[in-house]
Input
Amino acid sequence: MKKVMPVYTTIALLSLLIVSQAISIVSANPWSFSTQIDPPSGAVPPIISIHSPQKNAIYSGKFNISLSVKGAQYDGYFSDIFDVTYRIDNESVTIPHGADVLGLRQYDTSFIGPNLTAGNHSLIVKATGIVYKPMSVFFFMDSSSQVYFVMRAAPSIKLLTDQSANTTFSSFPLNFTVDHPTSWLGYSLDNLANVTIGGNTTLTGLSAGNHSLVVYGNNTFGDMAKSETINFAIKEPETSLALTVTAPVVIAIVIGLGLLVYFKKRKH
Output
């Protein structure tokens, strides 16, 4: 005959399975099966320490983001870090680290920051801690820390003027673009002293012949930038052939008429 497992044995095995699963859940999330409460008086929120970038520091090129977070504290309770996020310049995209920090008592990280334009920037770090008594109560506490820093970069200058263009006038258009703010702009014509300008301009009073031109600029940190050198030519205006032939003829006619009048007066 087929043996049947006693009912009490089945119940015992099911109970053991349920308890085992409950232990696994509690081990993974110790605050499971607990009641959420408001943070009590005296609870300390997570402590965020931003090591880099440093306050008001100036960086060039790549920079490092380094920070540490300690979980919230309350006497007699356990504490874990629940989530850590950061933002650059309050951008809408938040990079979460929740999967990396959940359950940690302290979180430390260091990584290369994103590429940023020259100017002022800010880093905001936010952390959420969970404080709990297993199978009893738990509560969340939030904190944030912000640091301002500056990125510097030499501006890049690109000339837009057609360097192959020849002009018969004594002026030449100087057009260019700059990718970063500048505190000074200037140009050098034929390797002569720099001339300060405010932006695109037209060079006038140029002599006929070949010329070279380069644009310079710097930012408030003194980072100097230089454009490529372009070469262009100013041609002398061509003299009209008609004017060349007609002028002597007119002069001859005037002289001839003058002589004719003179001799007529002599005859009289």
